[in-house]
Model the fold of this input.
Amino acid sequence: MESKTVVNLLAALAQDTRLAIFRLLVVQGPAGMTVGKIGEMLAVAPATLSFHLKELNRAGLIQARQEGRFIHYAANFDTMNDLLRFMTENCCTAASCATEQENSCCG
Amino acid sequence: MESKTVVNLLAALAQDTRLAIFRLLVVQGPAGMTVGKIGEMLAVAPATLSFHLKELNRAGLIQARQEGRFIHYAANFDTMNDLLRFMTENCCTAASCATEQENSCCG
DNA sequence: ACAATACTTCCACTAACATAGAATCATGGA
DNA sequence: TCCATGATTCTATGTTAGTGGAAGTATTGT
Done:
């Protein structure tokens, strides 16, 4: 995973509303949640919500699935897993920090 | 770990120069590295470097140690560990993602 | 005390981000 | 076809972040 990609992923999550959206979608699992429902749960205006969903989608952290006139967004666990692996390997590996290296959350 | 803290930590790392600084310091271990040396390695102007070091320090990701007229900055592994734990527990926990939950990089 | 070195703060500028009302697009039902 | 609904895009506005030259602070050696 490239350093530039990592920065984009971190930037995507480094915002209150977006982190909240992502955490919400993680709980929902692959089924995801409609834009309207997300907006309702988090009390975010449609335009603002759309903006943040676009950001998360662009980063690859969530993915859209159209169903009729509803759009379901779901967390992309693979991307999150890659990010966590990078962070663990590159940001937490030193003499003082080499006890347990084997991490992995989603296989 | 609070959600607001997490956003601050992610924001601190979501920048090319800062991620590079942190990764560099992680490799150096507790001994850390002087500001001058960091600037030399990454080719960053003094004022810019100082700005980013301040940001990382404010987030709690690095810590300063004065030695004579040199200031050594070292990665704060505890903070990084807490962040990784939060991310694993809150951003990667769903039906489709509950295989191995036990992660931890620095004890 | 003076000069040199190591960093930081100040400042001004530019670019990027966040927000939301209004307009628009797309889908499904009457 | 027309309308209602779900979601996005357009547009405007305010805020925050990143950059680096110049000036300031702190420490060491002479």
